[in-house]
């Protein structure tokens, strides 16, 4: 039995909130305007009350509304699959399992939170959301969620992606979203950058600034973020909760869990329900996998930093490479955010989870081997986890060990074929971000 | 319960061959060289013996080799899904179910036969296959199958698609296939066309000629076809066999079955196992759905015709629009082949199945409504069936009837976003092929 399907009755009806079980409390987010911890009222310009409560809550289990369950049933439960043909190609004896989130409407794990965020806005009378998107995964997810809940959606898409990935734009258009290349003339943040450089290609940090500025300035509009924040990580725990049930059914349990890590919601989503077990004494390791060219956890600093370029978001205690950080153009694998989920950062700082970075030659090598054996073209983001899981299995083999390895295949790569073309054409090089440059971009951290 | 998953033990281990149960025998294929029924030996230049046997067999059940089962387990069984949100958006009371074949590695039903064909070649010592592809679905499927069975694959891709759909090419490249724009300099057929018109965009009929010519001329290479032939339709019956089991589990049975129909393997695959029931007296209707701009069954003639432009394939008794027929450029929905599976043609001629054609405005209208409610972007080909099923449900509603409607969602549309863009940009028009033009293209039928 290589595929483990779950009955719909096993879709989790509660999210697991690890803030209830942390051995040490987390530092609060700080307002960029007052320099003090952000208040509930200050967050109301961007988010509906239930999401702000979830952001701050230490309640262990939070019920998932029935309407959110109804939409999630379109694609959940997602399968847990044993990658037997991949194991054979690697020549390893460890078992490699993957949880596949690419069966969702947007092709990734992102709709798990997009639907919940849209829902809480909707019941508060907000019928319009703004957001940013880089490669397009999150913009696609929010577009789908808004359409399913009959809301409007405006997506600020980093201009270089807008031009390079026309089919992501087409996808969002299919779900009636409005897609705006960023920097745009719609916001002060955008106009400011365009004045300095009319040819600017944009960045994720800037697109966030544009989306936040618009949401803050309009009563009918709120903002939605696809990763980083506590409530986003919370919503993604359905992934790990389902996976635990699936392992129960096959009488196995993972020794090591790998997940790619940009903002942290994918990693948190699959790993955190297992970390609950670890905190209760269970022997399991969770490893966040990031690009060598954007090594936030492995080479960044644990410090307060801004979430965006225009310094409009709360200042968060997290691993960061500095809010001005931009990975080099040669980097094709996504996961480009300068910061990291405060929850994931905290877990790493406390030594509860581990992290590693991988080079893109390995990402594409193992990603293609996975596609050729398992028949699923992975998103380059997800291929970070594939590479790390494969190398772990190879190491086990050398050491004569047989382990159970789990990774999250967070999405498919059907909209990322140009990155694979670049790899086949020999246009990608490995790039390790120089320590000196990181030190430099960390000089601009806020004084908190 | 809106999704019906099957345990892996229910993947069919035998194909159902309707030639065993036909009330009237089919007319044999004729050799274009001798003018007599094609012999086993004549087919050996292109196909391995087991496939030729299957092409001619009247044995009711044919065992599926374990190696083929092993690869199919990567994506089979596929889900049967009740489209409840789509029903609600349509405002109908009939139940609409769909069998979703888009979860396969190539994103369509095509790998069901690609793997079987590759396997039978492999065990006969053939390690290289050629084929043609139009939109890219079949070329993708054969590329995957060849890689899974460690064989080489050369795909002649209609040049206009080669240029318009770069990511289909990237996909095939990912599975180590060689993709050649057709017409090419590799074959007499290709060189002949290029001499007449160096700017030729190619056609499916010509790409078939190129692939057949190369396979016929090389001992190490065979040919594989993605639709039309009896053995291809046979391999696709796993779709309908699984679907019947799934209906059993939910104690329902479809009144009407819709499937889009180009060469006929998708329609035959889902419908034929139900037609077995119909021949035994069960009340079920199967309707082949084709484009109004390529109306093979609904406006073509039941006659012997060539399968390709260069007249290299056997002459088959089928519904045809004439082997020179080409749908207009304005047509964006695929299903462009001039002919039709002889089995499907025979069933239609005998009045056992029905057919209808649909306009592309309806295809895209209902296809988008389906995506927005069910969260799956359909291939435009598959959207033909969606449109027909939706219109049936609407008609039932008007007539006060509640039926069980089934359609086959043969593939996803992630590689077809440009067709949706054309629709949104208002570039698509409805086009009904003029009767006079069809009469004209039917003047060149062979004398058999």
Any descriptors?
homodimer; alpha/beta; Rossmann fold; 2 domains; seven-stranded mixed beta sheet; 18 helices; 15 strands
Fold and architecture overview:
Chains A, B: The beta subunit is responsible for the synthesis of L-tryptophan from indole and L-serine. Chains A, B: Belongs to the TrpB family. Two copies of one chain form a homodimer. Chain A is of the alpha/beta class. In chain A, 41% of the residues lie in helices and 16% in strands. In chain A, the strands form four sheets. A seven-stranded mixed sheet of chain A has the order 1-4-5-15-10-11-14, sandwiched between helices. In chain A, α2 packs across α11 and α15 crosses α16. Chain A is globular and about 60 Å long. The relative contact order of chain A is 0.15. Chains A and B meet through α6, α8, α15 and α17 of A and α6, α8, α15 and α17 of B.
